[in-house]
Specification:
Strand order of the largest sheet: 2-3-4-1-5
Organism: Schaedlerella arabinosiphila
Largest sheet: 5 strands, parallel
Helix content: 25-40%
Protein name: AAA family ATPase
Strand content: 15-25%
Pfam family, one: PDDEXK_9
InterPro entries: AAA-ATPase-like_dom, P-loop_NTPase, PDDEXK_9
Radius of gyration: 27 Å
Structural class: alpha/beta
CATH topology of the largest domain: Rossmann fold
CATH class of the largest domain: Alpha Beta
Distance between the termini: 68 Å
Length: 527
């Protein structure tokens, strides 16, 4: 048993023996199915504290010849799968945590040689009868020698593969050398039975060095068939909440919201912490802090602040993630920044609609901390007015609502290009920020029979408040907005869902710099 070659199962044993352990062992069923196939190269990217290392430790414990893990998998889901015993502790495993070789930036120029030297030392001990290499050899040549002389391939488990790109953000030479190293290690090599890499970022797009595209990538943008292994599923969290007597609805509000295909995934670290300590709060502060988030939301890209403001108000933003270069420095448009925030776990991507949004209350708090220290004072002040504006809406106080929206317009003028309906939408979402307590996330452009309502707020099931159907106008009239809601039947879809429905028309006159508001009830109680 070595540190890198055929390591033991101590790390996975620790996870299994923990007070809270969720069985994700069926991931092994998939990795077994792709052994020695063209799908054998897997790169899984997810945010910090989403269980990347635990999965890597589990695969090491299952495959490594350096231990006996039958007892650790007894009763686990994978034990019932075909082929389980066939591969249990039967493979040569090379396990690397790249971060261990990069304690500081001083290691950037030497870490590749350090990795090779450390692994070569163990290979010499593990295969004393193999010849033709020494501690000064290149690792890929030594592995080829071993394969040619023994016929034995290797399973590679590499954790934190991308920490080089995160630490060497500005060192393109280091990034290129590292990608060359990985390409040489894996591409076209017959000694590779399986390569499983984990990190926060997908594989870097870097000119012809995207040649390590031999990897199938599973990410927060495209989880493919591995979504259930990216975190805790709804069913798993419900079961744990029952066991630990924690309110699932509150856990859902705080920590749900990551869209991975049809699945909703929870951050495992946050769920475990709230189950253990019974305190609902942001548990991200000890890992990825608001200071890291601040760097990105303060970047000077057209539309970025508007997007953040809209999402803080519960809305979503369309993005194209395809231009993202899979690093933390190459940004050309706001979509690149927002895509990075998806990979970091600050946003979630709804692939069906092509939109991003803030997933839950925990991450909303991190955004709020970030904007507070970024000088977005007008935004914070606007949010503080939100509760009274919502109350004025319920009271059908049109003047108070118009004046409140106007005040928020003035407070956010330095952050928004206030010259179109998109900016007016941002202002409205912030104006109704406090609606989160009794409404679901606002629905943007809710489809009806003859068109789309701009914004719709549907009450949560346990809240006795009216639904809000809002139509925004630019240089027209609030009365015209109400007429459009009625004529095009924007509220019809809401009738079977809720009780009273308020129609809210808002207009901004560019010449007079005035806001007008018209509020009407949609007739009788519909419930």
């Amino acid at each position: 048993m070595g540190t890198y070659i055929n390591p033991g199962n101590a790390a996975f044993r620790e996870a299994v023996n923990s007070r809270i352990y969720i069985d994700k062992s069926k991931l092994i069923t998939y990795t077994n199915s792709v052994l020695n196939t063209t799908q054998k190269n897997i790169c899984v990217s997810r945010p910090r504290r989403f269980g990347k290392s635990m999965s890597a430790d589990m695969l090491v414990a299952y495959y490594s010849k350096g231990c006996d893990s039958a007892g650790l998998f007894a009763g686990r889901k994978v034990e019932r799968e075909d082929g389980f015993k066939l591969h249990l502790n039967r493979h040569q495993v090379l396990r690397l945590d790249v971060q261990q070789f990069l304690e500081s930036r001083c290691d950037l120029d030497t870490f590749i040689s350090q990795i090779e030297h450390a692994v070569l030392e163990e290979l010499i001990e593990e295969f004393p009868d193999c010849t033709g290499f020494n501690t000064e050899s290149r690792l890929k040549f030594a592995l080829n020698k071993i394969y040619n002389q023994t016929g034995k391939g290797f399973i590679f488990i590499i954790d934190e593969w991308d920490c080089v790109l995160r630490l060497a953000k500005e060192r393109k030479d280091v990034q290129k050398d590292y990608l060359d190293f990985l390409r040489g290690l894996f591409k076209g090599q017959t000694y590779v039975d399986l390569a499983y890499m984990t990190g926060i970022l997908p594989i870097k797009k870097y000119g012809d060095h995207s040649a390590i595209n031999i990897f199938d990538e599973y990410s927060m943008i495209s989880p493919k068939n591995l979504g259930e292994y990216f975190g805790f599923t709804e069913e798993e969290v419900q079961e744990q909440c029952t066991q630990y007597d924690v309110d699932y609805a509150e856990v859902e509000k705080w920590y749900d919201g990551y869209h991975l295909g049809k699945l909703h995934i929870y951050n495992p670290k946050s769920v475990v912490d709230v189950l253990m300590w019974k305190e609902f709060q942001s548990y991200w502060t000890g890992t990825e802090t608001y200071e890291a988030l601040k760097i990105y939301i303060d970047m000077n890209f057209d539309g970025l602040r508007e997007a953040v403001i809209k999402m803080l108000g519960g809305g979503n933003c369309k993005i194209d993630p395809s231009t993202f270069q899979n690093d933390m420095t190459t940004f050309q448009i706001k979509d690149d920044v927002l895509t990075l925030l998806v990979h970091l776990g600050y946003l979630t991507y709804d692939k069906k609609n092509g939109t991003v949004l803030i997933p839950n209350q925990e991450i909303t708090q991190e955004f709020m901390r970030a904007v507070k220290v970024s000088g977005w004072d007008g935004l914070i002040q606007s949010i503080s007015h939100s509760e009274s504006l919502l109350q004025s809406t319920w009271n059908c106080d049109e003047n108070a609502v118009a004046n409140g929206i106007a005040a928020i317009h003035n407070e956010t003028a330095s952050m928004l290009k206030y010259n179109d309906e998109n900016a007016l939408t941002c202002v409205l979402l912030i104006a109704y920020y406090s609606a989160k307590s009794c409404y679901m996330n606002p629905i943007m452009e809710l489809p009806s029979g003859k068109g789309f309502a701009d914004v719709v707020y549907l009450p949560k099931r346990d809240r006795n408040v009216p639904a809000l159907v809002v139509e925004l106008k630019w240089d027209q009239s609030a009365e015209g907005a109400i007429s459009q809601i009625r004529e095009k039947g924007y509220a019809d879809w809401v009738k079977g869902y809720t009780g009273d429905v308020l129609l809210v028309g808002v207009n901004y006159s560019k010449d007079t710099k005035e806001h007008q508001c018209k509020i009407e009830m949609l007739g009788e109680t519909l419930r």
